[in-house]
Structure formats: C-alpha cells, structure tokens
Amino acid sequence: MRALIDEHPHLGVEPVLRELHIPSSTSYRRRQAGTEPCERCCQDTELTGQIRQIRQIHTDSGGIHGSPRVHAVLKRGGVRVGRWRCPRLRGSIERPMRQAGLAGISPRRGMGFTRRDPNADLAPDLVQRDFTAPAPNRLRLTDLTMISTGEGPLWLSAIRDAFSRRVVAWETSARADADLVLTTLEYALASREVGPGRLIHHADHGCQYTSVKLTTRLVRAGIQTSMGAVGDSFDNALAENLWMLVKTECLRGRVFATRAEVNLALFEYLDGFYTPRRIQKRLGYLSPIEFEEKHYAGQATAEPVNLKPHHPALIS
C-alpha cells in the first residue's frame, strides 16, 4: 500500500485508501511508526542489539539457561534490562529469546534405584528435610542413580554440600555396590578437611549406605550419619535434585555408546560447568564456587529450602 502511494502521489492518499478499504488512521499510524517509533519499539531495537550477547550466554550454558538466568547474567555484566515490562506483558528478555528460538530446559520426573536391606541397622534422620547449613562442610547429601549406555548401565554416585549446592565428589561404576559409595566418600574426604563431629552425612536407607564398609569409614572420620527413608524423595530432596539437573541439562537427548563417553560428559558438566559456572537462584544467582568464595568473605546467605507445595525435583 505504502509503495503504491509513494509511486503514484498524484492519485492522492485518501482516494487510494478508500479504494483499498483501509482506514486513513491506520495508514498514518503505520507511517508515523516508521519515522517516529514508540518507546517500546525503541527499547526492542536496543535489546535486539543485545541478542548476540543473549545468544552467547545461552550457548555458554550449553543451551540450559532460560530467561531468568540469562537476565541474571546480563545484570551481573552491567546490562540494565528488565525481565518483564509489566506482570501482564511478555518479558523483554523472554520475547527476544523466543524470537531467536532460544529456551531453557525443563525437568522430568525420575525414579529411585536404591534398595533397602531389611536386616541393616539404620541411622536416625538428623536432617528432617531441612536442607540448609550455616557454612560449608556441615551437611552433605548423597545418593546414586543409573545411566544407560550401549555397554550396559553405569551407576553414578555423588556427594553434594547443602550450603553451596556444590558437588564435593562424584564417581561412577558398572556396579551399584558399597565400594562405589565408599570411593565417593574417600574422594570427598580428600578434597576437603572436615573437623570431627561437625559434618552430617545424609543418605537414604539403601543397602549401599547401610553397609559395614561405609558406616565404619564414617565413624573413623568422625562424621555423623543421617538417613531418610527409601522411596521418599522429600527425605533426600537436595540429592534427588542433583539427578534432575544432571539428567535434564547433561544427559537428555544424548545416546552414549560407551561408559567412557558418559564419564567425559559428566566431567564436562559437573566439573566444567555446574560447580564453577552454573548460577542458581537460591544462591543469589551465583555459582557454587562463587557462593562459597563470597561466604568466606563474610557476605553470603542462602535462601531456605521450602519443600511445600513444590516437588523436590524442582528445587534448583
């Protein structure tokens, strides 16, 4: 329409619009928008210039970060942009991400793999679903999960610090036995010095965690043992949450021919991304390492974990 009017100005604007059944107000509004864009259009144009930066942030996270974390990274970099224009409008971060085809990853529900030994002596639950700690090395949570490969199942065991959500140690094996969880514990003890009687080691009632090998080593190290129930993910929610992150952000959509391929992927995610670079809302949009560094500088405080009404797998 605009091209027709510009090409034949002698016809006049009003007659042309009348023949095309277009209100004159619509034509003038569109023409004005081209020469005098509204404030929102100006903001969108400015933000479009930052699309490359948004895309880079999303790529650096391995395609994991959604709009909240992209917004947090931009804010940390000194870029002032609101996540929402107003509660009822699409976000100024979300809209360009959607236009660029960028999106975060949502979790799926998993299943438990540990089995209880009916003859084992059980430790009391010292945590009672309170997954907070005043400092590092006060409360650690552990669990194991299974990953499918072309060579058969690979079992992953990990220990997570409740204060910073940091993965203190992890290990894999073709067998889900006591040796796997004991090796993980040894790595955790070697990586950090722990004062006797100050640390609580929380697991479920799985036979690997009630084994004589593990419980004896915990006693020798002066670590208090705590256990939640098998099959109740709320009793070990922070450990279950780690599996949700690993399987959503690291393993989903990937097929592994060998166990070695899984080990490499886990190393790149847990040691290369999660611990040093994955920012978390409950840590004030800091990574676990950054949060601990801030704590040692006397400034960090973690948000308490509230399990209701949300499922524990959604705590991130």
TrEMBL record:
Q: Which domain of life is it from?
A: Bacteria
From the UniProt annotation, give the residues forming the signal peptide.
none
Q: Which InterPro entries match?
A: HTH-like_dom, Integrase_cat-core, RNaseH-like_sf, RNaseH_sf, Transpos_IS3, Transposase_IS3/IS150/IS904
> Which Pfam families does the record associate with it?
HTH_21 (PF13276), rve (PF00665), rve_2 (PF13333)
Q: Where is the Integrase catalytic domain?
A: 132-296
Q: What PANTHER family does this protein's entry cite? A: TRANSPOSASE INSF FOR INSERTION SEQUENCE IS3B-RELATED (PTHR46889), TRANSPOSASE INSO FOR INSERTION SEQUENCE ELEMENT IS911B-RELATED (PTHR46889:SF4)
According to its UniProt entry, what is the function of this protein?
A: Involved in the transposition of the insertion sequence.
Q: What is this protein called?
A: IS3 family transposase
